[in-house]
Amino acid sequence: MAKETPIDYRNLMIYQVYNRNHNESGTFLELVDDLDRIKDLGTDILYLLPIHPIGMKNKKGSLGCPYSIQDYRGINPEYGTLEDFKKLIEETHKRGMKIMLDIVYNHTSHDSRLLEEHSEWFYRNGNGELANRVGDWWDITDLDYRNKELWDEMIDILKYFANMGVDGYRCDVASFVPVDFWIRARHEVAEINRDFIWLAETLDFGFRKAIDRHGFIAHSDSEMYEAFDITYDYDVMEKMHHYLEGKSPLSDYLERLRMQESIYPQNYVKLRNLENHDQKRIAYLVNNIHQLKIWTSFLFFQKGATMIYAGQEALDPNLPSLFDEDKVDWSRYNEDGIADLIKALAGMKKDRIMAEGNYEIHTVDYNDLIVLSYENSHMIRYGIFNVGLKTIELPVEFSDGEYKDIISDDTVYVNDGKILLGKEPLIFDVTK
Q1: Which SS3 state, helix, strand or coil, does residue 371 take?
Q2: Looking at domain 370-431, which of 2.40.30.10, 3.20.20.80, 2.60.120.560, 2.60.40.1180 is its CATH number?
Q3: Which Pfam families is this protein grouped with (predicted)?
């Protein structure tokens, strides 16, 4: 792992925005108008999907995919001008937030400026034709990192935006790019900003195995921690979805989470999210408001940084298209207090124990119950998440009495060594 990664990155809340579909105009300047609300949610980092001009050759949909980049140094005119983007950076910093860009370094569009100028830097198949390693990504063509001149150019682009004031990069399918490239990139960008944040989109087990089978680079999360501060939790998300879709028991998911504790470095940071631009909305998978609140509370209680995808706080069940105009539906914003809950949870997430405490995923004798805890020298913080909503009398190992829920401020009662669980998440501290 990047040895200098501070464990307080586990306290972070990241807010993901797809500019095109975030608001009416889809521009940087209209996003500036939303920054106060975004900050008020508890956001530390504003993360933007790619902001560059989109390739038109072999494009997907009516507007094209933001991950099919035509010019790495340019700004998508849909969003505004370079000066508008600089204004967004300035206003984000004024509010005490950092700004993170999505960097797509595995591939470009078929009509990219880089391809026009340096076709020798691109991957070719056995027939010598430009190609990509993932068949259904037909709107892009892959780069070939065996060309060290390519490294120089791509790192220069990273330094260009770092000098502009960008604070971090989320690196798309980072596992497809040699980890030695990322190590060098991190080192050179650190000369501009030593606190720059690096987030890697890593791969789920099945995808990585499929790529590896064809002999292509597909680095593991453990390898990516050599260069990155934070990696995605795709190594466990599939099991969460299987549970929500009724395909496997909750215990399978929890066992994957326990596995992370044994295979990653001691100071590892995972990106915890219930949804993102590639995954189904949690309001689509879970349509019971009590369960949504429980899963949202569980999300923030997990060990790692937390990400919210814009619209999640409005209970939007629709995953916006990447390729067409498909606006977030804000009509249910804060319905049933979901935005207020996120704000309260983000505040709780900042507590030191959430980064430094000894973390445990407890084994319980109930099929639809998650019990987590953080422990330090003077207290234990418990998170109890009754995702099945069944009435349960849960045996506990601490004294009878009254405890205060950190989020709701309600009283948690322990009688005869048991807590009665219902439809609300419980987060409370027990003093030693």
Answers
A1: strand
A2: 2.60.40.1180
A3: Alpha-amylase, Bac_A_amyl_C
Superfamily of domain 7-356: Glycosidases (3.20.20.80)
| DSSP result, 341-364 | HHHHHHHHHTSTHHHHSEEEE---
Q: Strand locations in 236-293, DSSP E?
A: 270-272
Domain ranges, ordered by start, for the chain? 7-356, 370-431
Q: Which two tokens stand for residue 241?
A: 């979805």
Dig out the tokens for 394 from the structure. Answer: 């849960």
Beta bridge partners of 381: 374, 429
Mean pLDDT of residues grouped by 10 in the chain (432 residues)? 86 99 97 99 99 97 97 98 99 99 98 98 93 84 97 99 99 97 98 98 85 82 96 96 97 97 95 98 97 99 99 98 97 96 98 98 94 98 98 96 97 97 98 95
Q: Which amino acid type is present at position 13?
A: M
Dihedral sign computed on CA atoms, order 65, 71, 72, 77: negative
Please count the other Cβ atoms lying within 10 Å of the Cβ belonging to residue 340: 13
Tokens, residue 334: 């804060």
CB-CB contact of 198 with 179 (8 Å):
no
Dig out the tokens for 215 from the structure. Answer: 């002999």
Do 99 and 48 touch, CB atoms closer than 8 A?
yes
CA distances from 274 to 53, 236, 265, 283, 298 (A): 29, 11, 23, 10, 10
What is the gyration radius of the CA atoms in the chain, in angstroms? 22
CA distance linking residue 5 with residue 62, whole number of Å: 41
Cβ neighbours for 301, distance < 8 A, ≥ 6 positions apart: 345, 354, 372, 383, 385, 427
Give CA separation, 166 vs 32, 103, 157, 170, 220, in Å.
15, 12, 12, 11, 27
**Is the Cβ–Cβ distance between 7 and 346 less than 8 Å?**
no
CA distance readout (Å), 192 to 3, 67, 154, 196: 18, 26, 16, 9
Which tokens sit at 315? 């209970």
Contact predicate 419/396, CB 8 Å: yes
The number of residues in the chain equals 432
Please indicate, yes or no, whether the overall pTM of this predicted structure exceeds 0.85: yes
